[in-house]
Structure formats: structure tokens, C-alpha cells
Design brief:
By secondary structure, the protein is of the alpha/beta class. It contains seven helices and 17 strands. The termini are far apart.
Length: about 325
Amino acid sequence: MTMPLDIAQLVSVALYSPKPDETIHFFHDMLGMEISHREGQSVYMRAYEDFYQYTLKITERDQPGLEEITWRAKSREALDRVVKSLEDIGLGWTENDYAHGAAYKFRTPDGHGMKVLWELDYFVAPDELKSKLRSRPSKRPLRGVPVRRLDHVNIMVKDVPSHRDFMVDKLGFKVREQKIGDNGLLVGTWLSVSALVHEIALMRDGMGAGNRFHHICYWYGTPQHLLDIADVFSEREIQIETGPAKHGTTQAYFLYVFEPGGNRVELFGDTGYLIFDPDWQTVTWNVANEVDLEKSSIWFGGKLAESFYRYGTPATPEAELADFYG
């Protein structure tokens, strides 16, 4: 059964960090994000074109990784329909989250935490942050090379088909691109509910662990900003994994780095391409073919590091970040 498109957008991503002060410094001082709120061991942050109170939550833990991903439904009625589709596997309602109304919590087949909601708080800029652009929630910051908005998230899973079916059947996502490997095995898929190529990507965990986090992505809009921030990172010992370069899948200019707590962060230098075709046919790359393997990952700009396929958070004993970068 095809679910209606009741999910509107990706709202926020909550991450753990064993080095919260350094992680917050990375996002605040280098990527120009604002701190919206502090509560207990958690800090809530937003980019200057994010319309809600926050899109990133950082909480202190002994290991990096994902706490949860939050989605917004299109309406209260849409939220009810999504919850009904999740009732057999859902964890239940919560009303204790900062700047959010009632949210329904659930998990992917591997166990990644997610929740869906309708009501949330919009950001209202204080006078010193108000933009003269009435369509912009706040001024462009003068710190670092500031990102503009949250773009997407990528999670690592044991089995891509079951997670693809979960996102399609339970939440109504559409499959935009996919990669198949030997014997037609699905190894990656890019899904969205909007004109974006993806709000979430699912990739097979190269270590076989599953239930791990691959990356969060923030959007710049200008490819030049990738070069600018890469220069900043190189001066300040932030580990660059790959890029700046361009993906074949999604067509986006990108840069992958590790924030000091150990989570991978992707920065987009444009949107890639947008999908308005209501009868879009899934783009398939056969990565058992050497050309597709190379061009789907990086259209130009080098090669993806080995760590890209093996390292996620929390790390496995066989694939700690130090194993790749010392």
C-alpha cells in the first residue's frame, strides 16, 4: 500500500558528543550557527535560515552518535495518520521536548530513534538578529563560514531494503536514487518527501553493525563556501575526510569532515537538483560496475576515503576513527 505524503520535512537531528564544548565550538564558531537554548547537558542550535527554534541538539555522552531524528507532519490530521501507521511498532507520545508540541516516538528496524510531530515553536529573532530580508529568519552571522539551513541526514543500516520499505510504507517517502551492488543487492537509497533529492539517505553499514549514524548535512547554497570552510578547517586541525568535490548521486558539491566529538558532518555547496516530476522514476546506479561505483560517489574531485563506508557513530572496535586518521 502506498502511504500518502503526510510527512512534510526534516525538522531536527539530535546527536551525542563526548566533547560537547568542542562540538558546540565547531558548529557555533566555524559554521556560524546560533545557540537557541541550553537545558541540562543539552545545547540547541540553528542555522540562520532555519525557521524553527533549533535543527541541531547536542547532548553530552561518552560516545558520539544519534539520539533521534525529528520529522514534521503536514497537519494535525496528517500526524494522526502517520501515528496510526506506526501504532504496531511505536514507542508512544512525549510532550517533554524543548520547543516542540506532542511528538510520537518510534524506531527504524535497526533501532534508530525518530519522532514525528505537528506543533513546534518558530524562531523569533531578537532585535540584534533581525534580518531586513523579511523571508529570512535572522541575519547572516559574521562568524566562520555560516551554513544556511539543515538539509538531510544519513543513517547506516544492516539491511537497506527493509529500511527503504519502512520509510516508504510507514512514512510515505519516495525513492529518488538508489545503488545496487553484486547480485542486485540494494546497498544505498536516497529518499525524500519534497522536491529535494533526499531528506534521508540509507546506506549499508560496511561493518555490518547497523543502527549507526553516518552524517548530518547543512546547506550553503554557494560552492565557493566549501572552499572557504575547507581552508578554515585545514588551519584549525578539523579532519577533512573527502572533498570539496561533487557527487554523481544527487549532483551536489560536498565536503565531509569530522566534528571534534567524532560525528561526521557533510556540507553542501548547492542543492544538487530538485524534483518536481510527480511521476519521477528512481535513478539506479549499478556499483558492481566500476564506472558507476566511481561516478556515483564522486563525479569529480578525487575518491571517497575508506572510512566513508566503514566508520559511523558509535564506532565499532574494528573501525575507530583513529584507525583511519591516527
